[in-house]
Structures are given as C-alpha cells and as structure tokens.
Amino acid sequence: MKPLFLILCCLGIAVPAFSQSYNLKGKITSASTKEAIIGAAVWLQSQTDSTKKFPAAAGPDGSFQLNLPAGSYTLRTWAFNFAAHSRTVVLQQDTDLGNIALTDDVKQLATVQVQGEKSTIELKTDKKVFNVGKDILSKGGNATDILNNVPAVNVDIQGNVSLRDNPNVRILINGKPSMQTQNNGLAQIPAGNIEKIEVITNPSSAYEAQGSAGIINIILKKNAALGFNAALQAGLASPRNNTANLNASYKTQRVNLFTNIGIRDQTLLLLEDLARVNKNPYNLLRQHNRSDLNSNSVNLYLGTDFYLNEQNTLTASYFRTKRNNNDTNDFLYNYFNAHGSADSTISRQEAYREPQIFNELELNYARTFKQPGRKWTTYVQYDFWHDDENQDIRQSGGQPGPLNIITRDIESSKDIYLQSDYKTPFKNGQLEMGIRSQWRAIRSEYSASQNGKLLDGNNNKLFYDEDIYAAYTQYARKWQQLDAQLGLRTELSSIHISDREQTLNKSKQYINLFPTLHLQYSFPHDWSLQASYSRRINRPKFWQLNTFSGLSDQRFLQRGNPNMDPMYTNVAELALLKKTGLLTVNPGIYYQYTTNYFDAVIEPQPDGTFVRTWANMGNEKRYGLDMTTTYSPYGWWRLSWDINWYSYSQRGEYAGKTYSADNTTWFTTIRSGMRFPKIVNIDGSFTYRGRRQEVQVTTAEQYRANIGFSKDFFGDRMSLSFSVNNIFNSNILLQEMDVPAYSLSTRSQREGVIYTGNVVYRFNRKKSQTDRMPEEK
C-alpha cells in the first residue's frame, strides 16, 4: 500500500502543477555586438508531448514573452546569419532567461580551423547589409568601388549613385548627412575605413524623408580594444591610384584616443565620342573629348571618447580632407555640311584646377539606462568646406578666331546639424522619438572673361540657404508572431535662393507629413513575411538649381533651374525572408508613385548648341521585383545572386512640350567567394545592366567583371591582396536621343583595366579587429 499511496500523492501534486501557467521571457542578442536581434525566431516544444509547440519572435528590443503550462521544454532560437541555439527549460515558476546570445554563423573548414567571418551579404528584417571587411575586390579602392559591389547599387563613370536604377537615393555616413557625399567626395573615403554598407529601401520615420529610392548608409569602422593598436595600409594600382593609410587608437577604461591619416594619388582617363545631327537643315558634328583627371588628397581624422561612467559617453572628433584636382580636357569638333563633306574643325584645350578643403567637427553624447533598450543620444555637427574651380580654355579654328576663356567659381558652405533621439522599451513594444534641425548656407561666386573681356551673364554670386526642421515618433508593438511599427515624421523646409545682381530672388516654405508602417510576421522553420509603406520627398540639389553653367563645352551647356519644386513618392513593399539549410532567399516586390516628378531635359538652341537643364514634368509609376539569394554549398565557398526586374511609366509636360517614357528592364550581379586560408582567398563578381529608356535618352546595356585574391601571413598580422577590376574593359556608357528635329548619340568610357595591389600590416591587432572611425548614430 505504501508505494501506491506515494504514487497517488505524487499524482495529486503533479496535476495542479501542470494546470498552472507561468510566464517565460528572455532577450535575444548578438554574441559579437551585444545588440538586440530584432525578429529572431523563438520555438518551444514540450518534451513530454511533441505536439505541443509554442512559437514566438523577438520584438524591437530583442525580447520575447510566453505564457506556458508548467513542464519541461526544448527551447530553440535562431536568426538569419546566426547559429541556432538550443537548450532545455524547466518551467515551474515565472522565469526570466536573461540574455540569450546567438553567435555568428560559422563553418568548419578544417580539423583545427574555423572560419568565423561574417557573411559578405546579411539579410536583415529592415535592410540588407554588405560587410566589406572581406571584400577583396574593393581593397585599395574607395567608397564608390565598394558601392559598385553592393546589391542593387550602381555608380556610373561620372560618380552618380543609384539604387534599383533610381538616382533619387539619400546617402548617409554613420546614419547622418555629411558633405563628404557631395562633390564626388565618396571617392575620397578609403575602402579600408568602411566596415559595412546598409541598404534601406523603405526607411522608417526615424530616418530623414529625403530620397525616394531609399537610403544607403555607409558605416565607418570603430575600435573597442584596450591598449594601443594600429594598422598600416598601402596600395598601388594601374591606372595610378596609390594609397597609404594609418589607423591607430589607444584606449583605457576612461578614455579612447583615435586617429586616421590617409593619402591618395590618382589618375583617370575618360574618353567620350558624340555625334549630333540637325535634321532640317541637315548638318553633322562629330566630337571627341579626352579628359586626363589627376587628383591627390590628404585625410585626417582624430578624436576622443570620454567614458564619464558606465552610462554616459561623450565623443568629440575632427575630420579634414584636402584635395587638389589638376585636369586636362581636350575637345575636337569636326563639322560636316549637308552633303556629308567636312566643313570645319575646331580644337579646344582646357586646363582645370580645383583645390578643395572639407572640415567636420562633431560632438556626440550618449546616455544609456539600467533598463535594457532605453537610450538617449544627442549630437551636433558643423561642416564647413571650400573649393575654387579654375578654367583656362583655349580654342583654335573656326569663327570668330582664337579664343581664350578664363573662368573661376569659388564655392563654400557652412552646415550645422543638430539631432536628439530617445527610445524606451515597454512590455511588448518600444517607443522612439526625436528632433532634427539642419541649417545650410552655400555661396557660389563665379566669373568669366573671353579674350580679356567679361562675359555677359557669367559674373555673379549665388546665395543658397536651406533650413529643415523635423520631428518624429514611432511605436513598435509585438503580438506573438506579428511585429508592427507605426511612425509619423513631419519636416518643415525653408529654402531661399538669390544672387548679387538681383536677377533672382526666390523663397519657398513647405511643411509635410511622412507616415510609415512596417509589418513582419514570423513563421516557423526560418521564414518571415514583411510589408512596409512610407512617404518620401526629393528636394532638388544645389547643383540642379545653380544657374551658372560651366563653359568647358559651350556647345553642350549644363544649367540649373531655380524654379524647381520637390517631388513626393509613396512607396509600398512586400518581401519574404526564407532560410533553408545552406540557402537564404529574399524575394520582394515594390511599387512607387511619384508626383511632381523632375528629370533632366536636353533642349536645342537657335545657334545649334544644346543646353541640359532640370524641370518638374509630371508623375512616375515604378514597380519591380527584386531577389537576393545566398548559397553556401561548402564551408569554404559562398555564392550570392541578386536580380532586379522593374518597369516604369513617366508622363509630363515642360515648356509646352509633352514628354513620356515607358520602360521595362533588369539588372543582375553574381558573386562568388572562396576561402582557402592555407592557400589563397578568391572573390569574383559579374554585373549586367539591361537597356534603359528614359524621357529623352536611351541607354544601352552594360556589363563588367572583377576578380580578386588575398593571402594572410604571420598569422593574421599581415594581409596581401591583388584584384583586377573591369576585366574586359567594358565600363562603357552608350546613350542615344532621337527626336524629330535632331538626334544625339554619345559613347563614354573610363579607359583601362584596373589592377590593384594592397598590403595591410597590423600592430598589436588581430585581423578581425576593426579600426576606430566616427560612431554610428
């Protein structure tokens, strides 16, 4: 009877225990960065009844919470690009598991060696992240070289950046605007200083509303190791692109001192051939342009972190770039008459000199709290830059005889940014809010003379002032597998443009609301569905408003339009993230509707020349399908493929003329990365862009291929790399325009295959340890 009595007693205790429910909570974080992993999957399964399964997903602060019957469970957590974590949980009371750290997904390459590098491409819930630390193809290059290797991003031979073939993209550095993104400044940021590129196609309200195509955020490196450490990099390239860079830091428990010094000496050869036909009366101009571009620059970055205590950090920094451009441009014009016979020849030589100086001062304060996920940051940034463009143009042949044109354009800007952000978590959600102000003052004083006499209309000073005030709030909430984030941003814009000669005086003020909505539903077995909506704005850039046109080529002038208004875009996206074993797939569809659309317009002049200007035209509808896929068939081999198919329709009117364009095209990039640590590492890529039809211009298909090799020596203290970019010398831009009165065709090419060799030597530093650059905001 005793055993039976004991069994009955145990059952009597067990029954009420299993009928009782308890709360189980925890927080999913990254083991390497200590940051919350948003949307991480959580899966609990009863160890006594396998049919009882309880799924969940981590919220905006990485936390999750479930109410479960008492018992023993198997807890499994995982996220994209992280190794799965599994453990046993015995639930007999309310339990807080604390932080559950997930490690980066690693692959074993050999018996005693593990490859622990991050994926080249990471697919996250709200962005795609391109880690450049292992990107052999861009070593020794600059930010534009790296961007050309990022999915859905393209940089043309003029340095113009587009996202999904849409040029209306906002580029940030460490989450904030910077004048380094203007005036071809991206070419001055060494690739070795960049940690990763974030591509955000549909940003939340926490980001500024500028950029209908989305945001590209360039994250610069930072260092967190104690003591002194440094890395020295040097690179040689053909055509000439020689670089040297020193990055060093010294850190204690209370202070971190850091500096970066870099130099670059670069030359480029650009070739361009144009054919212009006037149809009535018929005449032909064949033009050949050759530009030998030479530049050298010196970058200096220094600053310090003060760790006031565990919760308060103050950062002060100064960045300076000094760049000298010395270019030679040659233009040859061959005219043919109505019979097709040579009529006349004109040659034109230009000596171009432009010294530039850019300065940036920054003060940043960060406050964390004992409550996890609660944070307050405030920063103020002051940019001031100056450049001095000088042209000495000499022309021979034709009428009215020899010409000597001297021009000068002195530009300067003072920019102040102030931003403060606060976020705090709740039981099942998170609240964020912030304010931002920007004050920009640009001055452009230009003068021009021909054969010693001032040119009418080309001696003036332009004043441009732009003030933007913004505030936002957004709330994220979690309902089991569904995460939702609703945000609203308002921006007040005040713009004034005038000139010294009082021919121009325009002021514009407008206030806009920009709502955002992001939804994500997490399903079992490593997949989730995302939907998002946002409203965006594109304000005209200063150079699109500047009425002064450079006089390098008087037969094809480019002139801004100060009457332009901003355009507005509504963006909707639907995306799927799916990971099955070694394969990750991220397909998505998107739709963009733009009002007050503006674009470039090329207009013939009565004297047979052309002027390219900008104008608001009408509306644009754009929709597309894109997909990013990564596949690792073996631990040493990683493949990725991204493809974007899109179509758009443009309708508009300008100066009494109706413009329209309909186009369907696509582009794709295939990448392969192989890692043989004892032998060599190999990266390769191939990119193809299909034919594109714009309002006036048709652009032919393009392709390029790159390959790179790297090898580590002395453990991981020294690394050598060698890359060949533009293998087939195919970086060619072919464009055509054909209207009833005239036709225009151009062929532009950045000449030459690019060979780059690079060496990095580390002092008291491991290869996986990054450099200290401005803090990410």
Summarize the structure.
By secondary structure, the protein is mostly beta strands. The protein has a 22-stranded antiparallel β-barrel. Strands 10-11-15-16-14 form a five-stranded mixed sheet, with no helix packed on it. Strands 3-2-5-6 form a four-stranded antiparallel sheet, with no helix packed on it. The chain is globular, with a radius of gyration of 29 Å.
Name its key features.
single chain, mainly beta, Immunoglobulin-like, Ferric Hydroxamate Uptake Protein, Chain A, domain 1, five-stranded mixed β-sheet, 3% helix, disordered N terminus
Q: What do you see in this structure?
A:
- Among the domains are: 21-102, Immunoglobulin-like (Sandwich); 121-220, Beta Complex (Ferric Hydroxamate Uptake Protein, Chain A, domain 1), CATH 2.170.130.10.
- Strand 28 (482-499) and strand 29 form a beta hairpin.
- The strands form six sheets. The chain has a 22-stranded antiparallel beta barrel. The protein has a five-stranded mixed sheet with strand order 10-11-15-16-14, with no helix packed on it. A four-stranded antiparallel sheet has the order 3-2-5-6, with no helix packed on it.
- The radius of gyration is 29 Å and the shape is globular.
- It contains three helices and 44 strands.
- By secondary structure, it is mainly β.
- Helices cover 3% and strands 66% of the residues.
- Residues 140-214 form the TonB-dependent receptor plug domain.
Task: Describe the SSE topology.
Blueprint: H1 2-19, E1 21-30, E2 41-46, E3 53-57, E4 63-69, E5 71-78, E6 85-91, E7 95-102, E8 107-108, E9 114-115, E10 121-123, E11 128-131, H2 143-147, E12 153-155, E13 161-163, E14 169-173, E15 194-200, E16 214-220, E17 227-238, E18 241-251, E19 255-279, E20 282-309, E21 312-336, E22 342-368, E23 375-396, E24 403-425, E25 429-450, E26 453-454, E27 460-479, E28 482-499, E29 505-523, E30 527-538, H3 542-545, E31 556-558, E32 567-580, E33 583-604, E34 610-634, E35 637-654, E36 657-676, E37 680-689, E38 692-693, E39 698-699, E40 702-713, E41 718-725, E42 732-738, E43 742-750, E44 754-763
Parallel strand pairs: 1-7, 14-16, 31-34
Antiparallel strand pairs: 1-4, 2-3, 2-5, 5-6, 8-9, 10-11, 11-15, 12-13, 15-16, 17-18, 17-44, 18-19, 19-20, 19-43, 20-21, 21-22, 22-23, 23-24, 24-25, 25-26, 25-27, 27-28, 28-29, 29-30, 30-32, 32-33, 33-34, 34-35, 35-36, 36-37, 37-40, 38-39, 39-42, 40-41, 41-44, 42-43
